[in-house]
Amino acid sequence: MDPIDLNADLGEGFGRWTLTDDDALLAVVTSANVACGFHAGDPSTMRRVCERAVEAGVRIGAQVSYRDLAGFGRRAMDVPPDELADEVTYQIGALAAFATAAGDRVRYVKPHGALYNRVVADEGQAAAVVAGVVRAGGDLPILALPGSAVLACAAEAGLPTVSEGFVDRAYEPDGTLVSRRRPGAVLDDEVAIVDQAVRLARSGEVVAVNGEVVVVRTRSLCLHGDTPGAAALAVAVRRALTEAGATIAPFA
């Protein structure tokens, strides 16, 4: 198997409200998608996660989203491309300050939630995300779904691209994720999650909801930090991958 990265969404709290077990996940993953304040996260949370990521040797990534704190970035929004590009640059810049203060830098960018799903096919929104990334960091890799418009736009702009798979999400036959509005979109069975992780890493395949085998070539596997029992599931996934012969290593 090729080396595989493990990423998780971290810092998804705000003020006194917390969601992800950042410390536990930082002991397992190799890349941290840090919320930048638009769907979750605040300055103190961003600083704390960056500091702990550096201590753990975990790469810091900017998880950018639509401006939607109330909806956790999972509501569909229509944002003008110029405005979206500016907001992407703004989010990366905010996290970059804390990453630098912690002794590292932002290594990559990953869209979140509704924005992530939108830029799979929407070339206008995808181009806006890429424009925002270019303005913020020039050559920052973009982490997204294989075959997505945002990865195509990134490649055209000369940015590195990284494809990811999801160990705890159900797939459609076309390789996209099943909508969270549908039952069974998020996997919660440890055996099923571990099996999907190993299959993705070993053969670049996943079984879609209709039983069809779909090719999903990935360099990174996402472990959702807001899934119940996420930390224990992450430990089980990493253990299974290691036992299967995978080398766990960051892509950036």
Structural features, described:
The structure is a single chain. This protein is an alpha/beta fold. The protein contains eight helices and nine strands. It has a seven-stranded parallel sheet. Helix 6 links the parallel strand 5 (142-144) and strand 6 (161-166). Helix 2 (43-56) crosses helix 3 and helix 7 (190-203) crosses helix 8. The model has no long low-confidence stretch (mean pLDDT 95).
Task: Briefly characterize the structure.
The protein is α/β, with parallel strands linked by helices and 252 residues long. It has helices at residues 22-26, 43-56, 81-102, 113-118, 123-137, 149-156, 190-203, 230-243, and strands spanning 5-10, 31-35, 59-64, 106-111, 142-144, 161-166, 205-207, 213-215, 220-223. A 7-stranded parallel sheet has the order 4-3-2-1-9-6-5.
The overall average pLDDT, rounded, is: 95
Poorly predicted sequence stretches spanning 5 or more consecutive residues = none
Q: How much helical structure, as a percent, in the residues? A: 25-40%
Strands of the biggest beta sheet: in what spatial order? 4-3-2-1-9-6-5
Class inferred from helices and paired strands: alpha/beta
Short descriptors:
two-stranded antiparallel ribbon, 8 helices, 252 residues, alpha/beta, seven-stranded parallel sheet
